[in-house]
Each structure stands twice: as structure tokens, then as C-alpha cells.
Amino acid sequence: MIGGLIAARIDPSIMQRLAAGKRTAVVTGTNGKSTTTKMTTAALGTLGEVISQADGANMDAGIIATLTLGRTAPYAAIEVDELHVPHVSDAVDPEVLVLLNLSRDQLDRVGEITIIEKRLREGIARHPDMVVVANCDDVLVTSAAYDAQNVVWVAAGGGWANDSISCPRSGEPIVRDGDDWWSSGTDFRRPTPTWWFDDESIHGPDGFTAPLRLTLPGKANRGNATQAVAAAVAMGADPAAAVEAVGTVGEVAGRYGVRQVGEHSVRMLLAKNPAGWQEALSMIDPDASGLVIAVNGQVPDGEDLSWLWDVRFEHFENSAVVASGERAADLGVRLLYAGAKHTTVDEPLAAIASCPPGRVDVLANYTAFRDLGVAIDRIERSAGVSRG
Fold it and tell me: Which of 1, 93, 306, 328 has the most CB atoms less than 10 A away?
């Protein structure tokens, strides 16, 4: 990001000037930003050259650096941190804003999630011509987009509801009935989606239906793909071509990738907050030889790990888990109360080595994921192994 930092110091308007003339999609949300941005990039690629972050650097410096590298590309798909969306949108004037989900994440940095919802709502109001592709299954996202003039509603799923017990607009309780929800005593309720998905297909406007075959696992990624397709179609992409393109997306910045580490085939999954952990836990292979959960508590992770008690680790009451990372002891206490059989091995590579030979799933938060990836890269370089 150093190039972006320097460029912004020299010219504070550099982001606006670099984005001028591009047709831009901005993607934001608490979880799934990198994956959905990569899918949106693939879908927009059916129209022409697209510039996007290769590494998920989603604040000003990373965005500027990305735009600098793609001066001639007519399209941009930009991942943006939730806090930065309003002023980034003011600079790049996006044609489409994709709103995935909103939930608590790093309270010591971000603050309460209702603050983010209000800032997004205010930012959207400043861009009345912008198309907002919004997840109508997420109460907070729906509130942020509810007053926008151009909204494409997508039923992208909302498995985590603990942060939307009350209405962000009235404070009244949210009532749920199956997929439907509404705010008691008000007219605020789940909009009717234009796009949705099921176990086999994606469905859209004018009777459009196509098989949705993804390389990436999990229901959450089917929702991400549906929003990516909706965004690309809003920018002129052919729906069938967009659906085929999102199906080509595999590893995303190391996530879901499989790496060979000695006798172990290691699949790496990233989770950063309770909502993300809930989705990631559903992707764990019950037939894997081992499961390592690695948790750090550095600044990028959020130093307050009290959220561990919101994650349903009771899911592993019949599975053996290796607790690892800088905060392995905190994780071990949580697993103990969850009734999950576990051992504690602080260093993630040693934790993987402690598992029986074969397939090992590693579920890690941000810096634990990053540091393990660097360590495996180092092993591969020393052994002369090239990736993919």
C-alpha cells in the first residue's frame, strides 16, 4: 500500500482523478467482501478489462494503489471497508454499490454496528443515481438501502441474526417468520427480492434461471455469487455469462486453498467475527483427519476476544480440536465450556503436525491466517515447491 499512501500525501484528490471515467462497482459488508469482489470482477470481465485489488487492501491507500495499476481499464470492482464506503463513494462515484451484510466486528476499532448502518445510509443518500444491490435478508443492510432510489434486492441469506434483534430505525422488535421479517408497529419489513438462489440454481428478473455451480463451498458463497451476478447485470452484463463467470472463482487470497505441509493436506478457512465463524464452521469437513482453530488478538483482529463466547463451538462436542494461535489459551477455555474435546498447541504449524496424517482443516482469524500462510510459503520456498 506504500504507493497509495505516498500518492495520497502528494495529491489528496488522487483517488477521484484515477477513478474518473471508470464504471465502478463498490463491494462492502462485514463478511464476504474479498470473495464477492473477485466474483464481481469475473462477472464484469465478460464486458471488458476490470481492475480490482489482488490482496484485499480495502482502505484508501490500497484502493489508490489498485487504481494506479489499472489506468486504462474501463471497469473497476473495488472492495471497500465498511467505515470507508461513504468517502470512497464520494471519490469514485460508483455505478453500483453491493451491500452484503452487517454485523459486529472489531468493536474496539469500528464501534457499534448501528453506527456503520447510519453512515452507509447517509452515504447512499448522496448518490441518488447509484444502483444499490442489497441483501434483503439482512435487516441492517435493508435499513441502509431502504430509502435509495435504485435498489436491486437480493435474497442472499442471513444466517446470523444476533445483531438485528431490534429495528435500526424505530427500536421496535424485529419479528421473524421463516424468510420473512418485519419491524413490529412500523412499515419496515423485508422487501421482495429480484434475485435469489437455491441448492441448484440462481433466479433473477424476467424469469431468468440458470444452474449455479461454484468451486467455493458453503451457502454464504452462493449468496455472494448471487449478489455479484446481480451487480454485473446492473452494469450491463449478460446474466448467463455472468453466472458462468462466477463459477470459475476458486481460491481467494489463500482462502479455501489446499496446501501440502509434510504429511498433511491443509485447507485454510478464514473467519474474523461471530457471523463469519458461524458460516465457516458449516464448511468444516467432518471426515477430515484433524481440525486446527487458530486465534490471534492483534490490532487487525481486534484485541478484545470476548466474541469467542458468541460462537457456537458446541458444534464440535463430538470432534477433536487443536486450539492454536497467540490466544490459544482463551480459545481453550471457550472449547472447555463448549464440551469440545481439544488439545492446545500454540504454534499453528506444530498444531497441524500434531494431527493424524491426511486432510486437516485450519480455521483461523485474520493475522493467524496471514502468518500461517507466510510460514507455509517459507516452507515451500525452502523445498523448491511452486504453487498452482
Answer: 328
**202 pLDDT more than 80:** yes
pTM metric for this prediction? 0.85
Q: Domain ends where: 196, 221, 246?
A: 246
User: What are 296's three cell numbers?
Assistant: 490471534
In a shared domain, residues 330 and 219: no
CA distance to 134, 220, 370, per residue, from 158 (Å): 12, 9, 27
- What are the distances in angstroms from CA 299 to CA 28, 30, 255, 325? 21, 17, 21, 15
Parent domain of 294 = 258-383
Q: Are residues 262 and 235 part of one domain? A: no
In contact, 130 and 85? CB cutoff 8 Å: no
Confidence band of 77 (pLDDT split at 50, 70, 90): very high
**What CA–CA distances, in Å, run from 118 to 103, 142, 323?**
13, 12, 37
Q: Reply yes or no on whether the pLDDT at 40 is more than 80.
A: yes
Q: Catalytic amino acids?
A: 304
| Residue 349, domain member (yes or no) | yes
Distance CA 145, CA 324 (A): 40
Both 235 and 289 in a single domain? no
- The per-residue pLDDT of the chain, averaged, comes to 90
Residues 218 and 155 occupy one common structural domain: yes
Which tops the pLDDT comparison, 66 or 5? 66
